[in-house]
Write a structure and sequence with these properties.
Blueprint (H helix, E strand, L loop, with lengths): L2 E4 L14 E4 L2 E7 L14 H18 L7 E8 L5 H11 L6 E6 L9 E8 L1
Parallel strand pairs: 4-5
Antiparallel strand pairs: 1-2, 2-3, 3-6, 4-6
Helix pairs in contact: 1-2
Length: 126
Amino acid sequence: MARTIISTPSAPAAIGTYSQAVKVGTTVYISGQIPLDPVTKELVKGDFEAHIRRVFENLKAIASASGGSLNSAVRVTIYLTDLANFATVNKVMAEYFSEPYPARAAVGVASLPRGAVVEADCILEL
């Protein structure tokens, strides 16, 4: 099956050797997104809620560029440098995803690129 690379200026450009997303058949694999503003290329300012919202906005933009939406998500993985932010993730995620929610894992990690406090990736089925 052919691979299609998904790219949009509405989400941050890759900061490494990866694509924003890759589509194979009807499945889209969205790379991990940290709370980078796509215009300034800097981490957003503000509290954790502002950071997780930017992450979901980045995922949403890439999902849209692939022809889907966050409601097409079947799997989301969230990486947190502080698991105390788990409740905020749940609160904000409920604003971006509809029931039935995708499968999800939340993983505590020691650090993330560029000093981010959260990163998320997801898989869509279109």
